[in-house]
Amino acid sequence: MSAISRRYIETYEKINTLSNSRFWQKGKVTLVVVTKNQPVEKCLEVISAGATSLGENYPEEAVQKYTTNVLNKIQLHFIGHLQSRKISLLERVFSYWHTIDEYSSAKKVSNRFYENGRVLPSLLEVNLSNENTKNGIKIGCDSQEQHFLESIQEYLELPGIKLCGLMTMGFYPETPETNKNIYKKCRVLQQKIQDRYKLDSFTELSMGTSFDYGTAIMEGATFVRIGELIMGKRNVKDKK
Fold first, then answer.
1. Is 0.85 topped by the overall pTM?
2. What's the CA angle centered on 87, arms 82 and 88, to 5 degrees?
3. pLDDT class of 240 with cuts at 50, 70, 90
4. Which of 9, 136, 183, 206 could anchor a disulfide with 125, C-beta 3.0 to 4.6 Å?
5. Distance separating alpha carbons of residues 113 and 121, to the nearest angstrom
6. Per residue in 121-167, pLDDT tens?
7. Span 75-87, pLDDT tens digits
């Protein structure tokens, strides 16, 4: 068994054990293997090991790496910041969008998918750490939260996307508990939206990485985004 296969299986089993320890999380946590800046050979290897949800940050890279035959076997999640000029690439290969951070982008994506008879399951990205270096809709005070809650209706009216929940990125995790409060805030915010708009399907929370996915699951994560723990070091530096 290869190192990637072994690490994938070990991580997958740990996630199942953690989620199954809480009855309301049982069977509800999806492992998204982050494969950005990884060669296609390693991506195919983790797919062969059983991975069915892969995360990519760069549409051009994803289009180059994944053939139609491969895409038929997996669900490709877009987890980066989307530039408008790359929406056509998003539509070509991705089947889930984690990072809606502004209405204008969501509207353009919705138009593209709706024109092609598709609806894209999507998450709103919220910036709860109040760091300027992070993307996401900033929610650092009560007034920002209130404005965000009121804005949900306009997203719900977009015909080409389906809002399924929230995504967040915390601080760099110095310990597995560093982002515990961030993840808890995200879960509370998701529940407020679900209750306010009576959205039975607004249940997803994308949060947690290689270093703190256990904490994220304990706080309600339904997607955990894990890269280096499974795939090893990336070949090139992350792009800006």
1. yes
2. 150
3. very low
4. 136
5. 11
6. 999 999 999 888 889 999 989 999 999 999 999 999 999 999 999 99
7. 999 999 999 999 9
